[in-house]
Predict the 3D structure of the following.
Amino acid sequence: MNKINVGIIGMGYIGESHIEALRRIGICNIAAIADTNYDLAKNKAELYGIEKVYKTVDEILADESIDVIHNCTPNFLHREINEKILRAGKHLLSEKPLTTTYAEAQELINIKNEHPELEACVNFNYRLNPMVQEIKARIARGELGDVRIITGQYQQDWLMYDTDYSWRLEPEVSGPSCAVADIGSHWMDIVQHITGHKIVSVCGDLVTVIPTRKKPKNQQETFKDAVSADYEEVNVKNEEYAAVMFKTDKGATGVFHVSELAPGHGCYFGFEVNGSKESYSWNQEQNDRMWIGRRGGNNSLIIRDPNTISPEVKPYTSLAMGHPEGWNDAFKGNIYAFYKYLADGKTGERIFSTLEDAAYIVKLTEAIVESSKKKCWVNL
Ligand SMILES: NC(=O)c1ccc[n+]([C@@H]2O[C@H](COP(=O)([O-])OP(=O)(O)OC[C@H]3O[C@@H](n4cnc5c(N)ncnc54)[C@H](O)[C@@H]3O)[C@@H](O)[C@H]2O)c1
């Protein structure tokens, strides 16, 4: 069987996770990687035994052996680079958020529609955690009853000091939001994915808690605990904290908050759904289990087990019970879902996020920013 040849643009924090995931998928071969920081890309290529390294987007796109390109660059480059990838006739796997504005996301959808032979996926990787899929399956079977209330959070601590810095704080690079676009996007995607509800009305409060930060003069990798001796004091515009109330198209209501200032949390990403019969909750820091709440019955903690998981979820899990599947496995699962879909001639379920799904998340992010500025609810 001919393997699908892949190229990756952007070898920063998440680029490496893409390499690891792709190397676990037998139907792919990483043909080349690219980064404007050529030394960084060269080091990663040596570490992982990748043959070709390019410095520019145009060079990797000109490589005719490559079928699919992953875009792992900062947000403001997604619109331009994703367009180039599609126009070069290559399938696209883009990091989230799809773009920094909804108008740009729509432009990308139009370009993709001009190329029906191509497929595109946006990397909302948490979807493919088996217990997330188990919750989705139980909600679809009606076991939870009507979805009434959806709550949760995504908390991290990597921006808690004024010496912590990221391009996500800069509107020119990240878009008009830091925390909502970066981690709130995952939260909104997952709850819409599991419930089948769409968030249609939002009321947000975005807060920049640390308004002045020490920006390092040299490139820093995301989440690296390094205090640079060479820095400049800068005013910060984007938020590190947000609280959002919302309503859905099918009558549910909810609230979530996102924080990059919560000491002790690396990836405390969780949700709870209260239905008319049961409640379900899941938390990424203990992501091999789900909780079921019942009034007048026994509450249950379900630990992932391929033997007892719902039949429709079996394809998304592999390790035996007691061998926890974690963040990397869900990440690989999401990327595998995309490649399986391609390998099967674009048939089967598109369980991964499409451009349309991801564009709606950008629209929601814009609406939350607008709501916070105007201090009112915004309807989509
Ligand atoms: N799905 C997830 O869970 C997840 C997690 C982290 C980051 N992300 C997303 O991945 C993207 C990258 O984030 P990161 O944390 O890896 O950032 P990063 O800053 O660590 O890495 C970005 C890399 O892109 C390179 N780059 C910049 N411009 C380029 C260009 N024109 N051509 C080639 N390379 C270029 C930089 O040199 C850098 O190495 C963001 O959109 C972010 O939202 C997703």
